[in-house]
Amino acid sequence: MPKSKRSQRITISKSSKKLKANRGLELKQELVKKIRSRFDECSHLFVVRLYNERTEKLQTVRAHFPPSESSFFFFGKNRVMQLALGRTPATEYLPSLAKISPYLVGKVGLMLTNRSPQEVLEYFNKLEMQDYARAGNHVKETVVIDEGPLDGFQHTMEPLLRSLGLMTTLKKGIIHLLQPYTICSKGDVLTPEQAKLLKLFQRPLAQFKIKVKAHWNKKNEQVQVFDLQDEDDEDADQEAEEMIEQDDEN
After folding, report:
1. Looking at the structure, do residues 25 and 53 belong to the same domain, yes or no?
2. Using CB atoms within 10 A as the burial measure, which of 49, 96, 182, 205 is most buried?
3. Which domain range does residue 89 map to?
4. Which CATH number does the domain housing residue 189 bear?
5. Where is the composition biased (Acidic residues) (predicted)?
């Protein structure tokens, strides 16, 4: 008796991988459509470079350039954004957009807006927000904690501080550092433990900022490129083809 086709086995792992791949393709196609749709209402495109990106601080920037005023930010894989613009003159969505694609490398995103280039550049040139450095960041200063009582720490935190490498003891319910401790030295690549200590001792060493790498003007189809000389200083941010896993517009 022949086997019933309805009783065939299906490998769940293979089918789930296929579904995941299809979903990934759909998301990429959706991002391309979203980017291209905004060219109908926006006259300027900016490639923006992010340093020490933080979601909550990026929301502040989005609030300053809201979608209600025809300003839109896009963050996704650089190759997908290149596809939306076009990598060659033959495939570019609008004239001269292919000249922008080479600058979609590193921690970058796209900003489409009707705001004037002068206003956008002025805002980003002034934008700097302090934050705590993460593991993997290079630090530009040395942080040393002096020996003695540690103000602002409850006695229950003493085991945690010890586990992070500090020589501490409790005296009458107050944590004391038995000897000076260097959390980090200038030029260090932070470990998770160092990053945690910097946050515990409230020493923000990172700065969230955004700089413009390139600008495209829809009216005259001209491209302007900006030299970011400090780009190589942010080695921890050089993940070549990855951006924030966020490709919504809000």
Report:
1. yes
2. 49
3. 19-131+207-237
4. 3.90.105.20
5. 228-250
92-106, 116-130, 166-180, 234-248: segment of lowest average pLDDT: 234-248
Is residue 93 a contact partner of residue 39, using CB atoms and an 8 Å limit? yes
**H-helix or E-strand spanning residue 2:** none
Q: Is the pLDDT of residue 246 over 70?
A: no
**Residue 6 falls inside a structural domain:** no
Residues 36 and 107 reside in one and the same domain: yes
Residue 10, in any domain of the structure? no
| Exposure string over 171-181, b if 16+ CB within 10 A, otherwise e | eeeebebeeeb
Full-model pTM: 0.75
